[in-house]
Design a protein that fits this description.
The protein is mostly helical. It is about 40% helix and about 0% strand. Helix 4 packs antiparallel against helix 6 (about 130-145). The radius of gyration is 26 Å and the shape is rod-shaped.
Length: about 140
């Protein structure tokens, strides 16, 4: 009887060791409120991605696609004809900041708050300073990230 009790106890202890284990790399992910609210049961689809190259709608904490919003809001300003020299004549990859797209713009030029970011406050240099309305648009884009 003692052998049987010892065998059962040993079996329970060994089998209980794997209960509640979380596979590596999965312990810190939490489903989004949308996944919990819609009850679709597919928690993995609602988990945040860790793909460094991601540019989708959840690529930033604000839920804004930085590449698409840069193209829509900032590109017309920095490459537009509203200035004697478009910003992208110089800032096209050689001289920082690279203004050819939201995906190539260095992180230091995306730091909030936008109104005090050097991208907005730089002023006149070898090129013209941003117009007040354009600076406000770019600051709003930075704040949306």
């Amino acid at each position: 009887m003692l052998r049987l009790s010892t065998a059962i106890l040993s079996f329970l202890l060994v089998s209980a060791c794997s209960v509640g284990e979380v596979p590596p790399g999965q312990g810190s992910q939490q489903p989004t409120p949308d996944a919990a609210a819609n009850g679709n049961g597919n928690v993995d689809a609602a988990l945040p991605s860790t793909d460094a190259g991601q540019t989708g709608a959840d690529a930033s904490s604000g839920g804004v696609d930085p590449v698409a919003s840069f193209t829509a809001q900032v590109t017309p300003i920095v490459s537009g004809s509203g200035y004697s020299t478009p910003c992208t004549n110089c800032h096209n990859g050689g001289i920082p900041p690279n203004l050819l797209g939201g995906d190539v713009l260095e992180a230091r030029f995306k730091v909030k708050p936008g109104a005090s970011n050097s991208l907005v406050t730089h002023g006149a240099h070898s090129g013209p300073a941003l117009k007040t309305a354009d600076a406000a648009t770019i600051a709003a884009w930075i704040d949306s990230l």
